[in-house]
Design a protein that fits this description.
The protein is of the alpha/beta class. The chain is built from eleven helices and twelve strands. A six-stranded parallel beta sheet has the order 2-1-3-4-5-11, sandwiched between helices. A six-stranded mixed beta sheet has the order 7-6-8-9-10-12, with helices on both faces. The protein binds 5-S-methyl-5-thio-alpha-D-ribofuranose.
Amino acid sequence: VAPAVAPPATFAGGNVRISLVRQLSSGDYFEQWLAGAQAEAKALNVRLEVSSGDGNNDKQALNLEQAVTAKSDAIIVDHGFAQTVQPAIKKAVAARIPLVAFDVDPGTPQAVALTQDDHQIAEQALGALKADTGGSGEVLYVYVAGFAPLDRRDETWEQFKKDNPGIEQVARIGVVNSSTASAVADQAKAALQANPGVKAIFAPYDEFAKGAALAVKELGLADKIKIYGADVSTADIGVMTEAGSPWVATSATDPANVGRVAVRAAALLVAGQDVDRALTVPPALITQKGLRDAAITSVEQLTRAFPSLTTPDVARVPWVAP
Ligand code: SR1
């Protein structure tokens, strides 16, 4: 499909600079997201200057201050804690630098807030959990407070427990660091040994779900405990579909698509075009059975099976073919 309009002159020389200021960069989700952002930057002929706090919020705040000082044409803030990024976001807005905030509250209506539909992510995974458990039983929950997407999924979990009094959260575990899956696996093993009645684990982040799956398999409990997660990657699909896997459902967007949306929104702002101040990318429910039945082994195959995972109309750029 040919683009409807010519690119604005600003984009012709390849000199538009967009700073991507990340809190986290390790793990399947963040790697796929970056690959999508870089592919979109290439398609738009913009320079994407990437920094990561590597989980250190002060480092991310400093990187953000530097992007403002360097007068980037636009800034994308990817995750982070509101209290550490909002002061520099204010400075970006004061300096009239367009800003897109993904998965962190920018604290200003002048920035574009991009999210996945986290309530729907939790609803879809919990719908599968409810269907499998009949709405009752002991559940292990994996959560770390302070990350906006996890906090939104937690709101849905809290409501789910109220609506389903037969569901009992017997333990809560969780850690986010550069080796989240193995840290969660250790915690999950201890929690499952202390709570032998657990029949489901709600782990709404793929690193959590991978860790939980490792623990369940190592304890030999895969026939008794099922895992309901969030996110997807080719590696996750491998874990979900391997023989005897306890990870039976995940609700996910295509992270590369979300990275693409963030860069498109930033480019539109650079071009002075209108962008909705709240952009939301919807997820799809992906089940172990569905993956196995359709013999899906990669995210590429998954996006062909679920065309709704690609969202060209969210922050569509009129001068690039969809
Ligand atoms: C630590 S926050 C992890 C989440 O960020 C993104 O929203 C992904 O969906 C992931 O679950």
